[in-house]
Amino acid sequence: MIRVMLPAHLRTLAQVPDKVELAVAGPITQRSILDALETAYPMLHGTIREHVTLERRPFIRFFVCGEDWSHESPDDPLPDAVATGAEPFLIIGAMAGG
User: Fold this and answer.
1) 59-88: per-residue pLDDT in tens?
2) What's the burial of 59, exposed, middle or buried (CB within 10 Å: 0-12/13-18/19+)?
3) Is the pTM of this model over 0.85?
C-alpha cells in the first residue's frame, strides 16, 4: 500500500484523515499514484493536476523521501521506500506572497 499525505484543504474536500492508503498497480510513479488517488477520491480530480493536460497545478509540490520531486518526470519510478509504504508520498500546498 502506498501512503499519501494530503494538505488540509484537500483532506477536507475528500473527507479523509491526514494520510490515505492506496493500492497502486504497476510501476510506482507520480502519475500512477495520482491516477489511483483521483480514482479513489473523484472529488480531487482537477485539484492537484490540470483537468486536461494532467500537469501539476501551480503551488502544488510533491515530496518523496525528503526531496522535492515536483519537477521530475511524472513517469519516473519513485524510490522503493515509497513503493513499500515505508515513506509517504507528500502532496504539499506551496505558499507564496509577501
Assistant:
1) 899 999 999 999 999 999 999 999 999 999
2) exposed
3) yes
